[in-house]
């Protein structure tokens, strides 16, 4: 089983990198072949909103940079982890840079999911989605927004399972493990 | 509440100038605010985030404004990358000031899905940004079915823009008086300009026609990354 971590830590945020290392170790223990993208170190251009990945080079962004590789890694994973400082309740800019470029994984055509309009699948299988947010201290409203955003992304990305956790920067390694281990079981329902 | 004198518009779309629905919406609101005597300036996010000097220009513009308007497209359930980056910079800049000038903040979200409520999470994020940056939240407008508008001025968009124009007129009147975005404007803006079924049918036809024009009609469902293992 493949797993991809998208690390949305901003420059100098060592806590996010430590959390990435912890997740990599936990994933390996759980039997995954994990890969991590430290997005701030990758050359990924911003999405132009041109929709050429739907209508000119279907399934492929016209920009040939690491954004393509990240999208390929995501769609060929069983589990994707969005690891990010919680930024006003949402993702950091670094994570959003890669997430925006992932629309090539969907079809432009519409479908209905639970009575709402969404885009159709392009691929047969999509990964489970786990959001791991980081806050300096508890913030109920932002945690709720982060959780909702993961749920909304999971609907749009046809993720068969999703979950989210928010950790605070004061937690030590055992406390982080205690939070992350149950969250990583999000994918077990599909691949026990 | 003092009436505002100055407004700054940030267009959160990365599309070329003149091509985006965000610009059409934000630009129209700025015109109406100008009718009430507000002076304004407009920044495009792709330009504003291109260099430190341009970003400093945006930060200074927000600082000297009474009203900061953000018009943006929904990208994957939230704000686009460059817009998030701009908001990160604005929040950090204002947090670093001991006595940041009071500024009111309005957000206008538009999405390509026919239902406006897809924008709810993005507007919740905008509200949290306002709190983090010490801005006063003056409300948000949410529009679905934004794709057909493109960069066309709303006055030239015909009947489909009637509700949007009414919502923005109400909003401009309220903001110029120092009030928040009226509930009536929010409701009008969120109302689809055509039945959802018709919108999705026309949308599908539009994608097929574009694929045909580009010579990839039969490849529209291509799977270039398909080496999925189970």
Textual characterization of the structure:
The complex is a heterodimer of chains A (192) and B (230). Chain A is of the alpha/beta class. Chain A has one domain: Rossmann fold (3-Layer(aba) Sandwich), CATH 3.40.50. Chain A has 6 helices and 7 strands; from the N terminus they run E-H-E-H-H-E-H-E-E-E-H-E-H. In chain A, the strands form 2 sheets. Chain A has a 5-stranded parallel β-sheet, sandwiched between helices. A two-stranded antiparallel sheet of chain A has the order 4-5. In chain A, helix 1 crosses helix 6. The relative contact order of chain A is 0.17. Chain B is α/β, with parallel strands linked by helices and 230 residues long. Chain B has a single domain, classed as Flavodoxin domain (Rossmann fold, 3-Layer(aba) Sandwich), CATH 3.40.50. In chain B, helix 4 links the parallel strand 3 and strand 4. In chain B, helix 1 packs across helix 6 and helix 6 runs antiparallel to helix 7. The radius of gyration of chain B is 19 Å and the shape is globular. The N and C termini of chain B lie far apart (61 Å). The model of chain B has no long low-confidence stretch (mean pLDDT 95). At the A-B interface, helix 3, helix 4, strand 4, strand 5 and helix 5 of A face helix 4, helix 5 and helix 8 of B.
């Amino acid at each position: 089983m493949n797993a991809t971590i998208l690390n949305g830590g901003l420059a100098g945020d060592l806590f996010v990198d430590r959390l990435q290392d912890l997740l990599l170790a936990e994933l390996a223990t759980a039997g995954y072949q994990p890969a991590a993208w430290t997005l701030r170190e990758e050359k990924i251009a911003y999405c132009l909103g041109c929709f050429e990945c739907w209508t000119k080079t279907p399934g492929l962004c016209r920009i040939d940079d690491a954004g393509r590789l990240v999208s390929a890694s995501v769609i060929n994973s069983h589990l994707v982890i969005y690891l990010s400082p919680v930024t006003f309740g949402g993702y950091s800019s670094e994570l959003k840079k890669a997430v925006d470029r992932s629309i090539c994984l969907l079809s432009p055509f519409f479908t209905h999911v639970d009575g709402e309009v969404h885009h159709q699948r392009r691929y047969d299988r999509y990964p489970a989605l786990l959001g791991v947010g980081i806050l300096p201290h508890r913030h109920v409203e932002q945690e709720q927004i982060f959780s909702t955003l993961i749920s909304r992304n999971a609907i749009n990305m046809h993720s068969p399972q999703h979950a989210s956790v928010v950790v605070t920067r004061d937690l030590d390694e055992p406390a982080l493990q205690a939070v992350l281990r149950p969250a990583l079981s999000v994918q077990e329902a599909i691949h026990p | 509440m003092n009436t505002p004198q100055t407004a700054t518009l940030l267009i959160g779309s990365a599309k070329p100038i003149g091509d985006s629905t965000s610009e059409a919406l934000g630009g129209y609101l700025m015109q109406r605010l100008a009718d009430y005597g507000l002076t304004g300036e407009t920044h495009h996010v792709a330009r504003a985030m291109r260099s430190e000097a341009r970003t400093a220009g945006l930060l200074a513009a927000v600082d000297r404004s009474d009203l900061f308007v953000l018009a943006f497209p929904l990208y994957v359930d939230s704000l686009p990358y460059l817009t998030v980056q701009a908001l990160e910079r604005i929040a950090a800049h204002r947090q670093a000031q001991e006595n940041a000038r009071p500024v009111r903040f309005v957000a206008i979200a538009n999405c390509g899905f026919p239902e406006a409520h897809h924008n709810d999470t993005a507007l919740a994020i905008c509200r949290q940004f306002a709190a983090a940056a010490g801005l006063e939240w003056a409300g948000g407008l949410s529009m679905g079915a934004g794709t057909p508008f493109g960069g066309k001025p709303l006055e030239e968009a015909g009947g489909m823009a009637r509700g949007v124009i009414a919502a923005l007129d109400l909003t401009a009147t309220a903001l110029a008086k120092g009030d928040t975005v009226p509930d009536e404007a929010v409701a009008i803006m969120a109302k689809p300009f055509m039945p959802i079924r018709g919108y999705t049918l026309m949308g599908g036809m539009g994608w097929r026609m574009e694929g045909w024009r580009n010579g990839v009609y039969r490849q529209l469902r291509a799977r270039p990354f398909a080496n999925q293992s189970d």
